[in-house]
Every structure is written in C-alpha cells, then in structure tokens.
Amino acid sequence: MTALFLRDLKLSIRAGGGALIGVLFFLTVVAVIPFGVGPDLKLLSRIGPAIVWIGALLAALLGLDRLFQAERDDGSLDLMLMQDTPLVLTVLVKCFAHWTATSLPLVIASPLLGLFMNMDETAIGATALTLLVGSPAITFIGAVGAAVAVALPRGSLLVSILVLPLTIPVLIFGVSATYAAVEDPAPFLPPFLILIALTLFFAVIGPAAAALALRNTAD
C-alpha cells in the first residue's frame, strides 16, 4: 500500500503538472473576482471565504478523471481487480495519494489567496482549516465519478458533471463554518462537525462505490 501511495503520488505530480496546475487554476479563479466586483475591500472581505472555497472546489476537480485512467490504459486495472488486497483499500490509498498531490497544495496556498481577498487572520485560518477537513470529501466523491467514467471516451467532462452536484453539501458547510468563525453570534463547531462527518461518510461510501463501479466496468 505504501508503494502504491508513492507511485500514485508521483504520477499525480507528473501528469499535466499535478499540484502546480491546480494551484495556478486556483489562483486564476480567485484573482479574477476583484476585477469583477470592483475595488470594494469590505465586499471582498465579506465574500472572500466563499470565493476561496469555490476556487478550491473547482481546482480540486482537475485531474479527477485521471484517477484510474493510467491503470485502464496500461492494463494494470485488471491486476487491481484480481489481487488479494481488497479493491476498496486500493481505491482508498489512491484517493489519499491524489488528495496529497492535488488538494493539499490548495490548502497550503489558501492563506495567501485569503490575503489577496482582504480577509482577516481569523477568516484565513478558518478557511484553511475547513479546506483541510472538507477537501478529502471532494476526492472521495470524485473517485466514484472517475470509476464510472473510466471506460468512456469523454469521461473528463462526465466526471465534473457527476461530481459537482454531490459536492454542494461540502461547499455549504465549509463556507458556513468559515463564516461562523468570523461572526461572533454564529457557533463555529456545529457546521465544522458536520463537515467532518461528511468527510468521514464519503471516506466510507466513496471508495466502496468506486470499487463497485470499477468491477462493473471490467465486466
């Protein structure tokens, strides 16, 4: 499993720029917002957490279609299906490797983009924390879409269409927890705990559903 994690980590970084492409796309999405809303610093500060979360969500979708594509192209997907190691565990390790290579750099870059959006220290810290907790759920959801679309000719577009609606609850509670940390009357803990629960839920459901989809695709 360690060898699989390191292999997938290297492939994710090499394929299409990996983490660098995601961070650049993240930066581009957040950077164009001030040009659209104007030089209102108070408005930027108010909408900043939501914009950072939306940018991170869209950037995290990049590369999800390649989660199982390399194994499909070189035939190692058949070996994954026949090995003694449970396929669910293999998918889980691949999800962690993909998250480490693509989503973790977005979490690290989010404080810098928070400064760009004129967010204060509390909002920046809350945004980074919620992204760290909530972004794995996006990868687990994306694994299901990638497994369903792995054998389709235009699977990359289908993955985004399948995954994006399912990630809306993660986005809602991630942004809600961030705003709750900034606004004193609103409690931070309830939406944050729900965000953790969503990640744990999809950590169980996502790999299992992806493994089932891969087996059906092979059949």
Characterization of the model:
One of its GO terms (molecular function) is heme transmembrane transporter activity. Belongs to the CcmB/CycW/HelB family. It is a multi-pass membrane protein. It holds the Pfam family CcmB. This is Heme exporter protein B. 83% of the residues lie in helices and 0% in strands. It has one domain. The longest helix has 30 residues, at 87-116. It has helices spanning 2-14, 19-37, 41-61, 69-74, 76-82, 87-116, 121-149, 155-166, 168-182, 189-218. The model has no long low-confidence stretch (mean pLDDT 82). Helix 6 (87-116) runs antiparallel to helix 7 (121-149) and helix 7 (121-149) runs parallel beside helix 10 (189-218). The radius of gyration is 18 Å and the shape is elongated. It is mostly helical.
SS strand fraction: under 5%
Number of helices: 10
Largest sheet: none
Question: How much helix is in the residues?
Answer: over 70%
Q: Round the Cα radius of gyration to an integer and report it.
A: 18 Å
Q: Indicate the mean pLDDT.
A: 82
SSE arrangement, N to C: HHHHHHHHHH
How many angstroms separate the termini? Answer: 25 Å
Please state the structural category. Answer: mainly alpha
InterPro entries: Cyt_c_biogenesis_CcmB (IPR003544), Cyt_c_CcmB_bac (IPR026031)
GO cellular component, one term: plasma membrane
Subcellular location: Cell inner membrane
GO molecular function, one term: heme transmembrane transporter activity
